Amino acid sequence: MHSAPTISTQGLTRRFGELVAVDNVNLRVAPGQFFGFLGPNGAGKSTTIKMLTGLLAPSSGRIEILGLDLVAHPVEVKRQIGVVPEGMALFGRLTGAEFLSFAGRMYGLDRETAAKRAAELLDFMQLAGEPKKLVTDYSHGMQKKLALAAAVIHGPKVLFLDEPFEGVDAIAAGTLKSMLQGMIARGATVFLTSHVLEIVERLCSHVAIIHQGRLVAQGSLEELRAGVEAQAPAAAGDGAAAGEKLTLEQIFLRIVGGRRTEQELSWLG
What is the CA radius of gyration of the chain? Predict the structure, then answer.
């Protein structure tokens, strides 16, 4: 018997005037999945995440998170999810500890628990060395780690991440991956968008691909690979060799119809 999905959408659509940014998307993410949501620039990824997290109202369609209708139960849903949006929107004039304590209090933690978890997170993220440093003086990578810490301080059941590894060094990325895999091991669900397909391939068990606002593929990596291999032989320009197992990048290029350009720029030799 299949368990109810942690995230599901039916006919999810978002229009901006004449532009249909997200067009009739039906997503299904099972409990405990590390789910990658992929697409070219402008495909509708960030718009979809904003709708899934209540930051943007859909033009039509239905969203359910943890079995709850997001429109009907927005506060109850938001208490159980964590979000690291594309723009991190941190409070720059606070210290890291102050910001995390504030985030914990907003999620309903008592003052003592919020402060204790803030200290643990700062230590885990290797941000505890300069306790008086203001968030505005953090590097981009430090701010990414702080945003992730704020998103998990309340122990969310679902975590939404929009490009969490962008601008993060290898050491910090390793810390973030370790924490995310620990959350999955404890039964949480992670919904990730990233342009770094190698990271998605290493972390995610299931993937959906959106292209021009429409969902064009959804399933486990093995299912997507089998579907692509059955439909077409090796495609010129995607780097695939006959008989080799397709990488996620090669699967992605075949599904969205992308090809690496062979054109050369004369002034670059």
Answer: 20
pLDDT tens-digit readout, 120-140? 999 999 999 999 999 999 998
Q: Are 78 and 85 in contact (CB under 8 A)?
A: no
φ, ψ (nearest 5 deg) of residue 8? -145, 145
Assess whether pLDDT exceeds 50 at residue 268.
yes
- At 191, phi and psi to the nearest 5? -115, 115
With 0.85 as the threshold, say if the pTM is over it.
yes
Rounded distance, CA 244 to CA 240, Å?
Answer: 7
pLDDT at residue 169 tops 90: no
Report how far residue 52's alpha carbon sits from residue 61's, in angstroms, rounded to the nearest whole number: 11
Contact between 88 and 143 (Cβ < 8 Å): yes
Q: What is the pLDDT of residue 29?
A: 97
CA angle in degrees (0–180, nearest 5) for 6-12-16: 135
39: nearest Cα among 242, 257, 265: 257
